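Open question from group meeting: does this chain pack into something compact, or does most of it stay loose? Before anyone orders reagents, we agreed to write out a predicted structure and look at it together. Recording both the input and the output here so the notebook holds the full record.
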Amino acid sequence: MTDELTKVRTVFIKLLTEPPKEVQGELARLDRGQQLAWWFRHSIAWGLQAGLNADSLFTGRMLAFLERLPLNQRFISDRLTHILRAGGRPRRPTLIELFDYSYPATPVERITIVELAGKVLGELTRWGKPLEIADWILCGFREGLLLSTRNHPLRKRLFAELGPKGMDDVRSLFAKHIGPDPTGWRPQRLVSETLAWLQEVHPELVKPNCRVVEFERIRHLFDFTFWMGLAAGAGDGPAR
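Structure tokens returned:
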């Protein structure tokens, strides 16, 4: 492994110091930080594509390593591979693709939340604040509450997919952070309680250090308040 990584490092440094003529023009338009990000993205995509084509043992070890990465980093790696394979076909906004990527085992939840997140992103983009977390928090609660009160069959399917333990978790979080009294569902309180939950459960996302971590923070905040809104609209909690 050490010898292989040394070879990779040597090639990568040569590419950084002597980029091919085909990409020199594109790199010249970027500052140093953007150049490094460009090389990072393209190197992962090229490396994975080459390894997958060769079906090498080294690629297998790399893929196993990628599976242990945080969700946002796995998303970047997988997305780069998909982009490479997709060619010029149009793609959804990156934030929405991260939403879609985050629910591999719950198809009803994935389809529902991805659709609602796309709707909210469109709204917030028109308002000129697509990444404003307070708005994502409030819109998540709104969408969950509206779905819960207007689409009872889908609400039941979501709760059924969640399972008994998941329903207990939602019930507990709802009692702790939201409560059954609608007078407590004030925007300022919803935002503060949701951020307190994030600090407790995902402290590494409180202050994002890059865009994909910022996207993951939005995904968690929207998901949390969506389920809180869903529980609020159920009247007597998720068991209904």
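Observations to bring back to the group:
The chain has two domains: 2-86, 94-233.
The chain is about 75% helix and 0% strand.
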